[in-house]
Amino acid sequence: MRVLIVDDSTLFRKVVRDTLSECPGVEIVAVASDGKSALDKIRHYQPDLVTLDVEMPVLNGIEVLRELQSLQTKPEVVMLSAMTDHGALATTQALRLGAFDFVLKPNQSKLEDSCAQLRMDLLPKVKVLQERLRKQLGTVPAQEEESIRFDPVTRPFEPGHVKVIGIGVSTGGPAALAHVLPKLTATLSVPLLIVQHMPPVFTRSLAADLDRTSKIKVHEAATGQVILPGNAYIAPGGKQMKVVTVNGHKEILITDDPAERSCKPSVDYLFRSMAHEYGRDAMAIVMTGMGDDGTMGCRLLKRHDCMVVAQEEKSCVVFGMPRQVIAAGLADKVTPLNHMHEIIESAGVQGGSKCR
C-alpha cells in the first residue's frame, strides 16, 4: 500500500510516518505540508492511501477532498482531526465527501504516548484498507477468502408491528446515514435509536448535519428525552445509550457505563435494552462498520422474535459488522443501502407492504 502523509506539522508528519512504518506492506511514497502540494503529489505518485490533516495552509483538507472528486482514480483518505467543534464539523463534511474514516490527533504530553494512541487508532483502519486493496488486485489466496451464505428465516419479513428501530453503524456510517435519513418522510411512524461509533463532540456535529438535511428530527440523545415517532436519537460519543420506562413512557438514558468490546457507545448495549423494554416490537439494523459490535445484541433480540436487517456487502464501506450478523444466522433480510429507507418506512405501518 502506497501512502502519502499530509500535515502542516513537521512533528506530526514524523509521528504518522513512524506509526505507519510498523505496518507490514506499507510504503511511504511522499509527504506534503499543505493542500496544494498534496494534490500535486497525489497526481504524481498515485498513492493508495492519503492521511490528510483537516487544517492546513493554501488548501485545507476539505478543499483537497473536493478537488479529488475530479480525479479518475482517487486514493482512500483517512482524516486526522482535532477534537474541537470546528474539527468535528470539518470531519463530518469530509466523511460526506468520501473520506474512508478519521482518527483523532493524539494530544498526549509524551511523544511515545501519542505514538501509542495513533498506533491503536490508525493501524486497524490501514489493515482494513490493505485487505480491500488485495481483493481489488486479486492477490488474496482462495483459502483466505471467507465466504458467507445468507439463509433467510422461513417466515416472511413483515415488520408492520415495529415500535422502535435500533441502528448500529461504524466505519462508513456518517455517509450511510446521510444517504438513508434524508429519504425518510416526516410522518415516519417509528423512532430510530442510532449508535454510530464516534468520539465526543463528533456525534453532536453529525446529528446537527443530519437534522439540517432530513425531514425527521435528528438529535444527539440526552437523558430524559421521550422516544417519539419521526425522531432519530444518536448516542453521544464516549457515552452509552439505553432505553428505560419512566411513568409509562419510553425514555433515553445516557450513562457512563464501561465500554463493551472497546465500544462506547456500544450497539450491543443499546440493543440489549431494546430487547428488555420492547420485546418483539423492536427491530435492529446493522450497517457498515469494522468489528462485530451488534452481533450479541441481535442474538438477544432474536430470542424475542425481533426482526433483524443487515446491510449487504456491496454497499458497505466495511462489511465487518453486518457480516458477523449474517454469518451468525441472525439476519431476516440483507438489503443494499439504497433500499434501507424503504425497510424503515414500512416497519411501523400496520398492514403495510411486505418486504421480501
Gyration radius, to the nearest Å?
Answer: 21 Å
Q: How much helicity do the residues have?
A: 25-40%
According to CATH, what is the class of the largest domain?
A: Alpha Beta
Largest β-sheet summary: 7 strands, parallel
The neighbouring-strand order within the major sheet is 8-9-7-6-12-13-14
Helix-and-strand structural type: alpha/beta
Question: What is the overall number of helices?
Answer: 11
Which fold name is given in CATH as the topology of the largest domain? Rossmann fold
Structurally, how many domains make up the residues?
2
Shape type: globular
What is the rounded distance between the termini?
41 Å
Q: Poorly predicted ranges (pLDDT <50, ≥5 residues)?
A: 351-356
| Name of the CATH architecture of the largest domain | 3-Layer(aba) Sandwich
What is the CATH homology-level superfamily of the largest domain?
Methylesterase CheB, C-terminal domain
From N to C, what is the helix and strand string?
EHEHEHEHEHEHEHEEEEHEHEHEH
Q: In percent, how much strand structure appears in the residues?
A: 15-25%
The tally of strands reads: 14
Mean pLDDT: 90
GO molecular function, one term: phosphorelay response regulator activity
Subcellular location: Cytoplasm
Pfam family, one: CheB_methylest
Main location: cytoplasm
Question: In words, what does this structure look like?
Answer:
The protein has eleven helices and 14 strands. The protein has two domains: 2-137, Response regulator (Rossmann fold); 164-347, Rossmann fold, CATH 3.40.50. The strands form three sheets. A seven-stranded parallel beta sheet has the order 8-9-7-6-12-13-14, sandwiched between helices. Helix 1 (10-20) packs across helix 5, helix 2 packs parallel to helix 3 (61-68) and helix 8 (267-278) packs parallel to helix 9 (295-303). Mean pLDDT is 90; it is low at 351-356. It has 356 residues and is an alpha/beta fold. The two termini are 41 Å apart.
